[in-house]
Amino acid sequence: MIFSMTGYAARTRAVKGGALHIELKSVNSRYLDCVFRVCDELRIAEPALREMFGAQLARGKLECRLSFISAVCSGQQLSLNAELLERLNDFDTQVRKVLPLAAPLAVNDVLHWPGIFGDEAVDIGTVVPACLALAGEALADFAASRAREGEKLAAVIMQRVDHIRALVSEVEPRIPAAQAAFNEKLRQRLLDAVQAVDDERIRQEVAVFAARIDVSEELARLSTHLDEVERVLTAGGACGKRLDFLMQELNREANTLGSKSLVAEVSRTAIEFKILIEQMREQVQNLE
Q: What is the mean pLDDT of the chain?
């Protein structure tokens, strides 16, 4: 399976006193780079999360946001601390006996009193395992999203590979005849320019020149590199760096093909090769 380095996933889980929320998103990077945005109460879970992500991801800049949403903010069913509420009422009565002009406690004051909804502190013993479980679920969704995009990128690359193969199949049979015609034209020009030189010497010089402009070796290496691209895509896994190297080699052969060719048709095909290779390279940059 091919994975893209771009992905996104988010999950929420209810826990005692509130809810946990995790968000994962990543972009391209040469190496694996994990950036955490974690609230202070859950900072203790960061090393375990880093180890979890490192075990499943090879490349990409991953941003992990982990937060705890209290029950007040999450809209969960709440129950008042009856004992604390009674104590607040007693305090209010006592204060107003001494200070009759003092304003009574407002409902808003009571609802924002610390502990009015029970123990609002985060229970680390139960929340950290819940964090790791939630992160595991989010990571599965995250990997699935990267796999879906990776599959699409692989399909785009394979389309370009097939296009290059079609161009090779189209132009390769025409190269010998085109080069032979060019060699004959060159031989005739040499004869016209240097009539004192014998025909055998001219044939030798043309043969040497023909060997220099022969592009059959470049086309063969081009096909070999395309075979390797297909093999790597079929094998799957973390293949971005290897495919990036193959794109460099394909581009090198296309450059050599263009520089050696003295036939307009081959030169145009070399330019088309470079365009298709660049399109593949752009997609490869997104692969893990």
A: 82
Higher pLDDT: 19 or 115? It is 19
pLDDT tens digits for 1-41? 889 999 999 999 888 777 889 999 999 998 999 999 988 87
Of 38-52, 149-163, 259-273, the least confident: 259-273
Three-state SS for the chain is CECECCEEEEEEEEECCEEEEEEEEEECCCCEEEEEEECHHHHHHHHHHHHHHHHHCCCEEEEEEEEEEEHHHHCCCCCCCHHHHHHHHHHHHHHHHHCCCCCCCCHHHHHCCCCCCCCCCCCHHHHHHHHHHHHHHHHHHHHHHHHHHHHHHHHHHHHHHHHHHHHHHHHHHHHHHHHHHHHHHHHHHHHHHCCCCCHHHHHHHHHHHHHHCCCHHHHHHHHHHHHHHHHHHHHCECCHHHHHHHHHHHHHHHHHHHHHCCCHHHHHHHHHHHHHHHHHHHHHCCEC
